Amino acid sequence: MGEPQSPHESVLLAEVLDALAPLDGAVVVDGTFGAGGYSRAIAERGAIVIGIDRDPTVQPFVDALAADFPERFSFVASPFSELDIAIGERHVDAVVLDIGVSSMQLDQAERGFSFMRAGPLDMRMSRDGESAADLVNGLSETDLGNLIFAFGEERASRRIAKAIVAGRAEAQITDTLELARIIEKAVGRKPGGPHPATRTFQALRIAVNGEFDELVRALFAAEKILPEGGRLAVVTFHSLEDRIVKRFFDESKTSPTPSRHLPQQAKVEAHWSPVRKSVKAGSAETGRNPRARSATLRSGIRTGVVAREFQTAGLGVPGFRRGAA
User: Fold this and answer.
1) What are the record keywords, sorted (predicted)?
2) Is 80 annotated for ligand binding?
3) Where are the chain's structural domains?
4) Mean pLDDT across the stretch 84-89?
5) Residue 190 CB contacts under 8 Å (≥ 6 apart), including other chains
6) Is 320 annotated for ligand binding?
7) pLDDT tens digit sequence for 184-202
8) What per-residue confidence (pLDDT) applies to 290?
9) pLDDT value, residue 1
10) Which of 56, 59, 95 lies closest to 79 in space, CA to CA?
11) CATH class of the domain at 111-209
């Protein structure tokens, strides 16, 4: 086999494969290819796999799978939010999405995703557009605080924003460890607790890559391309993402409660039939892969109801707008 060495272990792999089954002969879109862990396992079970990723550094893993499964693997360089465009007119039986940054990307110090490794404050998945350094050094104190609170659920967001603005007044903040040091100095660190920069780095990464918008667009794109009986499996790594996916699958969570004073409305037809309740990693997996502790798998089977148009209403998508008070 030509698979390159990868530090990334696909989370909830067995559970994802089960949610996508049956796989033999199926056409499956791996919308977040990464190191190709899901794609390889799916191809090994006899499926035809279309991998999608916007990160140019995944190419060695693409080449390895193409060599091992030349008749059953293809790849499209694209944001996963445009997976409907990426596959064109091809028939698809299932879609899998693994949302968030991978350990492979965290281990690449030059990408700037990790507060544990020295590197440029970048965080761009596609290597273009606005970087984390641009946000850290360019946003007002109010906007920084709003961003860190909205996308990181960080209670100390105002204090952190104030410390960042004070720090950049002395010199531009362009290094991951420097930003982490500023945050730790501002809020302190509890013994045994998570690093105080965790939520701020999460918020910056989400903002830089437009991750919530990407996720919602990908969910509706999957709904559009999957026929009745098609399967969608989504793995998320924090509560904000999971809330969006939960509400997407369960339309009773997004529909407004009807007034008892108004005429009774027809019941909304479901676009998805849930396979099961959310799935978490077991103790064996979390023991060998700490990243799996925060992972949640939700999946569904497509009904015959016509696909919805893209929308964010009712999905609980966090908002951040520059210049807001």
Assistant:
1) Cytoplasm, Methyltransferase, rRNA processing, S-adenosyl-L-methionine, Transferase
2) yes
3) 13-104+211-256+264-302, 111-209
4) 95
5) none
6) no
7) 999 998 887 888 999 999 9
8) 81
9) 45
10) 56
11) mainly alpha
Q: Are strands 48-53 and 73-77 parallel, antiparallel or unpaired?
A: parallel
What class, spelled out in words, does domain 13-104+211-256+264-302 have in CATH?
alpha beta
Contact 307, 222 (CB under 8 A): no
Beta carbons within 8 Å of 51's beta carbon, 6+ residues apart = 30, 33, 36, 39, 62, 65, 73, 74, 75, 76
The count of residues in the chain is 325
- Binding residue per annotation — 129? no
Question: Per-residue DSSP letters for 187-209?
Answer: H---TTSPPTTHHHHHHHHHHHH
Q: What is the pLDDT of residue 257?
A: 46
Write down the pLDDT at residue 287: 87
Instruction: Check the annotation: does 122 bind a ligand.
Output: no
The answer to the question of whether 105 is labelled as a binding residue is: yes
For residues 274 and 230, give the distance between their C-alpha atoms in angstroms, rounded to a whole number: 12
Is residue 24 annotated as involved in ligand binding? no
